[in-house]
Amino acid sequence: MYNYIKKKIKSKNFNVGIVGLGYVGLPLAIRYIRSNISVYGVDKDSSKVKSLRNGNNYIQSISTNYFKKHPNRVSSDYKILKNCDVIFICLPTPLKNKKPDLSYIINCGKNLKSIISMGQVIILESTVYPGVTRNFIKLFINSKLIAGKDIFIGYSPERENPGEKNFSYKTTPKVISGLTNNCINIVDLVYKPIVGSRHKAETLEVAESSKLLENLYRAVNIALVNEFKIICDKLNINVFDVIKSAATKNFGFQKFLPGPGWGGHCIPIDPFYLSWISKKNGYNPIFIKNAGRINHGMPFWVLQKVFKYFSNQNLNRLKILLLGLSYKKNVDDDRESPTFEFIKILQKKKIMYDYSDPFFDSIKIGRNFNKKLNSILLIKKNLKQYDCVILITDHDKFDYKYIARNSKIIFDTRGVYRNFKEKNIIFC
């Protein structure tokens, strides 16, 4: 079976199935489609399935008519994966009460059990803690199938970079791993049509841990520069000028910019995954937890500056505009956005607020919202009605000069205005 599937993949005569057509699964599907490989998709969200069949795109940066031409290749039913040679699992792994929630993956494993057959390749791309892939296999593999001989198992952490137009797996290496030597050889061949350079990790657990380290590196450095921002604020020093100077060093320093907190599916989640499994195995991390506290506390710190500025006024009469809902600039992705933390605090204090974001016309009911909230149009009449604007997400689509000219005061958490001459800016 090993030689058979190896030959089939080498010839690019294989079918790909993808479970989870979100910010990881859909771009992955597009890459194989562009390589002229047949793709089948499964997503439990029927609205996504309907959108793809109609040729509509629920992720603004991705456009495809593939599933409109092949409506039978996308479904909420796992049965369409029966004839797939390779199956990728690209499902979310959120936190629940600050603990890993693997329910999406567990349910997937149970659904796969009835369709898995000899010769198939199963690759997990979801972010998990070390050991999950090895245990995940037990949910669907039966005693008749031998891994590395009859069926092939791999893990490869995603490295998507939303909002970066030049991102490509042709230039960005991908970490891959397999349960056995045969498995990793097959996994390598699977990625070869879409990934220029593949790094073979020694074990599944090494590959799983590498993803956590990548995002932990970013999380702690973001926390470091955010804490440094607080110190500079106390010393009345412009933190962006300091960073600009330090960044001239061409060795031993990488520039990170402060912000209003952290966001996205990875950076606020992965440190908790690593902390959880570490604590379970006898060590309670200190540094990682402190980084989490700093980043999570930034919205409160920013708002404390806002409240101090308006200390002579009745805070309940304030009207605040939150600029940006996306967790990072130029993407239509609001997962774990710090803006939601700002909203929670403002709601608790019963302070009036609105938001504006070119990527989100509205915030739907949910996320502690009991009514739909629409994005405010950034025109002079609207801007003038707010006591202040808090710049949270620095989208390129915003006209910053116009916003500054027509706003009373702007609290800039991203340093957008550091090279502007506007006087009504407070950096925080």
Number of strands: 17
Count of all domains: 2
* CATH architecture descriptor text of the largest domain: 3-Layer(aba) Sandwich
If you average the pLDDT, what whole number results?
93
Write the CATH homologous superfamily of the largest domain: NAD(P)-binding Rossmann-like Domain
Distance between the termini: 60 Å
Per CATH, what is the topology of the largest domain? Answer: Rossmann fold
Strand content: 5-15%
Query: What share of the residues lie within helices?
Result: 25-40%
Question: What is the count of DSSP helices, taking H or I runs of 4+ residues?
Answer: 14
List the keywords.
single chain, 428 residues, alpha/beta, Rossmann fold, 2 domains, five-stranded parallel beta sheet, 14 helices, 14% strand
Could you characterize what this model shows?
With 428 residues, this protein is an alpha/beta fold. The chain folds into two domains: 2-202, NAD(P)-binding Rossmann-like Domain (Rossmann fold), CATH 3.40.50; 217-427, Rossmann fold. The chain is 35% helix and 14% strand. It contains 14 helices and 17 strands. The strands form four sheets. The protein has an eight-stranded mixed β-sheet, with helices on both faces. A five-stranded parallel β-sheet has the order 12-11-15-16-17, with helices on one face. Strand 15, helix 14 (400-405) and strand 16 form a beta-alpha-beta unit.
A few lines on this structure:
The chain is of the alpha/beta class and 428 residues long. It has 14 helices and 17 strands.
